[in-house]
From TrEMBL:
Keywords: Methyltransferase, S-adenosyl-L-methionine, Transferase. One of its GO terms (molecular function) is protein-arginine N-methyltransferase activity. This is Arginine N-methyltransferase, type I. InterPro entries: Arg_MeTrfase (IPR025799), PRMT_dom (IPR055135), SAM-dependent_MTases_sf (IPR029063). Residues 181-328 form the Protein arginine N-methyltransferase domain. Pfam families: PrmA, PRMT_C. It comes from Strigomonas culicis. GO terms for biological process: methylation.
């Protein structure tokens, strides 16, 4: 059984991408995301991470991460932001008393790299006596980790600053990446449990009146789609999550995120939802796959799992085609509570020719 999902974008995708970040609501959403903020604040307020280092914030947006690094002892921070949100940053850094420690570069990573290391070293002569760049922080993650396509810019920045460091000193500092590790996790899902929770939450009671008939009409937007981005209730997730792929930001090359193909075995036996649903039935029909990601740095961890506090990334769910779901063709039994799937995943960059593709083959 095969499925393929393509999202192709037009020529002006890059322009549109940066324009989206000029909307203050997008930043408000990210700044209100507690798990996200706690993860980055925990790291950047840790003196063993930032103290006396030159830090680069790749894609600094409102300037929040650059601010935290500067406030917690960084020797200097480069705040790189291509969109016009960089124009807010001068007053943000002044307001927080760190303006003298932060250099704002309102340009893209790609343009900065194109100018070359010699240009950078010449423009920012204070770097050499401070020993080079030793920390790159970035919040680059998109839906199912890679959708936004920003990881490629972060890797490009990493390689550029490594090259810069090597031109400055014979013993260049190692550049630590924040986050340093990232993984994509996947679990089978069951639509009926999602539907029940959705109808209950949104259409369950209006001063004692249930409107589940109207709710059915509303829910069709999920039932009829190939994929959707929502927080799934635990009851709909038929596994604790199997790691599909892992990236080490220090060593990976951009190509390794372009095409990933793995055969994975998902064991459902330890899932509370699977156990609950098979109390009275011989098995459960799988309606699709739910994908989320985790990122790490040392002991710090940010998870977008359906089993943890919700984030603005929610979870990404790909549905099996309607006929397969209707006929319950992917059915996992109590006796054999595991499912094999071959998943292929590819992202082509640059963003102007972005093509994100998930394909999968399921067999039991
Ligand atoms: C997810 S936001 C994070 C903003 C901020 N660091 C935060 O944590 O709130 C990513 C930001 O990176 C910027 N960005 C993405 N790709 C970039 C690139 N190649 N060069 C410069 N800025 C980039 C976007 O414009 C956006 O403001």
């Amino acid at each position: 059984m095969n499925h393929q999902e393509d999202y192709e974008s037009g020529e002006d995708c890059d322009v549109q991408y940066y324009e989206d970040y000029e909307n203050v609501d997008v930043h408000k959403l990210m700044l209100k995301d507690k798990p996200r903020m706690n993860f980055y604040h925990g790291i950047l307020s840790d003196p063993t991470v930032v103290k006396d280092k030159i830090v680069v914030d790749v894609g600094s947006g409102s300037g929040i991460l650059a601010c935290w690094a500067a406030l917690h002892g960084a020797a200097h921070v480069f705040s790189i932001e291509n969109s016009s949100t960089a124009l807010w940053q001068k007053s943000v850094f002044e307001e927080n008393g760190v303006a003298s420690k932060v250099t704002i570069i309102n340009d893209s990573v790609e343009n900065i790299c194109a100018r070359g290391c010699a240009w950078f070293a010449d423009n920012y002569k204070f770097i050499a006596p401070l020993g080079g760049i030793s920390l790159i922080v970035s919040e680059w993650m998109g839906f199912y980790l890679l959708h936004e396509g920003m990881l490629f810019s972060v890797l490009r920045a990493r390689d550029f600053f490594r090259e810069l460091n090597a031109t400055l000193t014979s013993h260049p500092p190692r550049i630590e990446m924040v986050p340093s590790k990232a993984s994509i996790v996947i679990a089978p899902m069951h639509m009926a449990a999602f539907k029940e929770a959705y109808l209950q939450e949104h259409w369950g009671s209006f001063h004692g009146v249930r409107l589940s008939t109207v709710g059915q009409v509303d829910f069709a937007k999920y039932d009829e789609s190939a994929f959707f981005i929502e927080v799934l209730p635990e009851a709909a997730v038929l596994g604790t999550g199997t790691t599909f792929c892992e990236f080490d930001l220090a060593t990976m090359c951009a190509e390794s995120a372009h095409l990933v193909r793995h055969e994975i075995n998902m064991d459902l036996s330890s899932s509370a939802a699977f156990q609950y649903l098979t109390r009275t039935a011989p098995g459960v029909a799988v309606d699709g796959f739910t994908i989320w990601f985790d990122v790490h740095f040392r002991n710090y961890r940010l998870s977008t799992s359906p089993f943890e506090e919700a984030t603005h990334w929610k979870q990404f769910t790909m549905l099996l085609p309607a006929d397969i779901r209707e006929q319950e063709m992917v059915y996992v039994t109590k006796e054999e509570p595991s499912l094999n799937a071959v998943l292929h995943f590819g992202v082509l960059m640059p963003r102007t020719s972005e093509l994100t593709r998930w394909t999968w083959t399921v067999g039991q």
